[in-house]
Every structure is written in structure tokens, then in C-alpha cells.
Amino acid sequence: MFTFFIFLFEVSAEEIDLKAKSAILIEESTGNVIYEKNADEKLSPASMTKIMSLILIMEQIESGKLDKNDDVMVSKEASSMGGSQVFINEGEVYKVDELLKSVAIASANDAVVALSEKVAGTKDGFVEEMNKKAKLLNLKNTFFKNPHGIDEDGHYSTARDMSMMAKELISHNDILNYTKRYEDYFRKKDGSQIWLVNTNKLVKFYEGMDGLKTGYTSNAGYCLTATAKRNNLRLISVVMGEESIENRTEDTLKLLNYGFNSIKKDVLFDNKKNIDTLNLDYATKKGVKVYLKNSIVRVNNINGDKVKYKYELKYDKLKLPIKKNAKVGTIIVKTNDNKMYKQDLIVKDSISKQSFISIYKNILNVIVNGL
To answer: Which residues are known catalytic residues?
Structure first.
């Protein structure tokens, strides 16, 4: 029988005394670091490796190159994986959705290898893509040798890099629909079912937690990349190199409790609300709404001064026609703590240019009405 206790203690940054070899706490939307300990130390990430694997899989799904209902045939290599698994057999065929679920909830090594082969043709080809993505994300202290996280020489990452991977994965919103599940079932081809229980037990016991990925090997120790959201604030914590599950849990709680008790997030500009309108000469449409590409948020101490800011809008030299979602300018925001934020401005509607005949008629109409 599994017994789980959570102690909702409050701590200050000075009082945080972690047992982890390495750790970090960030605010998700900005990536701002709230706390860190040896965050750039290269360590084995164990099954937290699957965060990068899930990034590539979710990208394929969102791009339409992969569908959740697509069939995946299990290879000999996938079926032979050890560690956490759902015991799929060579030659069996499963849906992407079923395999994805078993990876996100139960950290199934066999399922992630099968998915990696579906995405890239071979496991090694998929690992190449993992390392290419790491470079694109500017993860300077990460290198992968496999998609599952079983220890290999030269397979490493850091708490800081893991937090950035988690930030990227969360941008694919649908993944949280898998990682937040405490339990589910995986149906085998022989009709039997395997009970999937989330390796991250905190999704059931900690308010707001909906992911993300645990890890353990004898070399890596116990690891956890966790994320939780309360009100409009989402935090990501990473602990690596713990000696026990209990230490991993306690350190994660210390980090998240500190963050939620001491940090607040101010949304200065919401990208869902239009900030201006465009009225361009010779455009077929007037009053086209202008939005920020991404919201501008400010993260500060919960007891900090009220946010004051000023902003300016700078429009580029606009030429018609303008495509939907095209950049049209920049907003620059300066806050009272001397921080500056820049964000692109976009239009969500395309803007066409009037035809020569329409322009001529409009000019003629102005002249006639003027007379």
C-alpha cells in the first residue's frame, strides 16, 4: 500500500536547503530564474530525457505529419527495451495515442522507442533530431545518446537545460492532457490491460500540478522535472541527483512552495486583446486590429511595488498587401524597475490593397463631394 504525505511548509530563499546535486526553479512564461543550485552541472537526466522525445513527437502531431490515430508497428528493438515498459511485442500495431499515453504517464521505454522509429525511421535518426533540437533551443550542456534515458556514456543534461526543455514542451498544450493523469490503462493486443500509474505522484497530491517527468537510474539518482499552475502563475522546477524518492519529493515541494508564496506575475499586455488599429491608405479594410504576438509579463516579489510602465508602438514601413499573422511593428515597454520588454506586433486579418480602379473611383468621389 502506498502512503504519501505532503507538508505544505513555507520557506524563504535563504532557508531552502536542498539535498539535490542540482536544481532550478523558473517562471514558465518568461523563463526567469527564481532559484538555482549548481544548475549547469552536467548530470545523467535518466527518463527526463523523454521530455525532449515528447517535444519532437508533439511537433510532428501539431504539424500534421503524424496523427494520433496513425498505426505504429513495434520493432524488435522497441520490444526488447528494459526498465519501465508496457511490454509491447515485435510485430504488434498500436495507435500513436496509446503509445504517447504510456510514455507520458508511465515512462514506457518500449513505447518511446516505437514512436521514435515512427517519427524518424530509426531510433538513431530520432536521436540526431533530438540533438539538433537541443542546439536550436540553445541547450549548451545537453547531449543525447538515446530517446529513453537509460544510462550511456556521453548522455547528459543539466537542471537549467531541463527547465528550458520543459518550457518548450509545455508550449504544446495538449501534452498536459496526458501528463496530468494520475492513472489510465493500456490495452494489449491479447485483450489484457496494463494499469498505468503516473510516475510523478505529485499530480494527484499537489494543488495545480499537471506534469511533467520523473527519472531514475543508479547513476542518475532520483530526478524530477515538475510543473504546476496556480491562478495565472506557472512554475517549473527541476531536481537532479537525489538519493531517494522522499528527498526528490521534499525538494520539489520546497521549490514550488517558495515560488508560489513569494512570486507574482503581472500581465502587462495580453496578446488576446488588441492594442491598436491600422488604417492604411489604399487598404481594402480600415480599422484592422493589432495584437501582440506574445503577452508581456513581469515577474517580481509578491511584496514588490505596484507596477508602473510606459510604452511606445513602432510600426515598420508597411506595404500592402499584408498577410494574416504578419509582423507589422514592435511594442517597447519600460517598467518602474528599469526593465525593458520588446514584443512583435501582428495583425490577425490579412489586409489587401485596393485595385487601381477602386483607388481612382475613391479619388473621384472625394473630388465630386468636395465640389
So the answer is: 47, 50, 107
